[in-house]
């Protein structure tokens, strides 16, 4: 296994990898309707791609207001700290941009992962795309 690396992606140039990963995780695995997965925020967001070697295996995005989302790792690479690497990159980029607070809507089953990274639950549970979520916040 190669070392996992994360880089800032370009929405136009890297769209094939970004779409392949998000479609596999959200649309195929979790049955999120495509019209809910793709939105106008993608064009302005800072996107991240995680790689093992030359193969893209995970993605995340940072919106200009500090919201982190679309964190996704292909099934075969889960449990290998790919999500940690993506989140660390997104938080680091947010801080570099002066965004002192990072926010996200976490699937409830993943909330402990985000808590380990310094996020705190700030909402009651709610459904998004039919999946239980909570809002979470991290202050730098």
Automatic annotation (TrEMBL):
- Could you state a single Gene Ontology molecular function term? acyltransferase activity, transferring groups other than amino-acyl groups
The record ties this protein, via InterPro entries, to: Acyl_CoA_acyltransferase, Bact_Acetyltransf, GNAT_dom
The chain positions of domain N-acetyltransferase read 4-140
Mind telling me which SUPFAM superfamilies this protein's record contains?
Answer: Acyl-CoA N-acyltransferases (Nat) (SSF55729)
Xref: Gene3D superfamilies: 3.40.630.30
- What's in the keyword line of the UniProt record? Acyltransferase, Transferase
What's this protein's name? GNAT family N-acetyltransferase
Q: Which organism is it from?
A: Pseudomonas saxonica
């Amino acid at each position: 296994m190669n070392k996992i690396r994360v880089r800032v992606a370009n929405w136009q140039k890297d769209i094939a990898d970004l779409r392949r990963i998000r479609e596999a995780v959200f649309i195929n695995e979790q049955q999120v309707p495509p019209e809910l997965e793709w939105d106008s925020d993608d064009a302005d967001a800072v996107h991240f791609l995680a790689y093992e070697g030359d193969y893209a295996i995970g993605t995340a995005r940072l919106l200009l207001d500090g919201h982190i989302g679309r964190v996704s790792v292909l099934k075969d690479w889960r449990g290998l700290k790919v999500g940690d690497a993506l989140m660390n990159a997104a938080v680091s980029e947010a801080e570099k941009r002066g965004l002192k607070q990072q926010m996200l809507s976490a699937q409830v089953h993943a909330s402990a992962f985000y808590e380990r990274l310094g996020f705190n639950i700030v909402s009651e549970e709610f459904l998004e795309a039919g999946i239980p979520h909570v809002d979470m916040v991290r202050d730098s």
